[in-house]
Amino acid sequence: xxxxxxxxxxxxxxxxxxxxxxxxxxxxxxxxxxxxxxxxxxxxxxxxxxxxxxxxxxxxxxxxxxxxxxxxxxxxxxxxxxxxxxxxxxxxxxxxxx
Length: 98
What we know:
The chain is of the alpha/beta class. It contains 4 helices and 3 strands.
């Protein structure tokens, strides 16, 4: 997560719904996570695609600028659930609980 402001929003929402969250840039490591949230503006779908195929039990959720239609399309084709950044923020508590 490169956007520190966005990272703090996710952390705050996780606290509200009492969900543990670990960021890839943290020193913590979670083996076999239930879900992964990815900033698709920062990480290309190609880099995530192999993980998606190797770990079908892990739900991958991505957020991206609504203007980035090609990324949205490619991400959905490989099985990533994609939200625009604004919709992701609106639905974040629900996304974390599911």
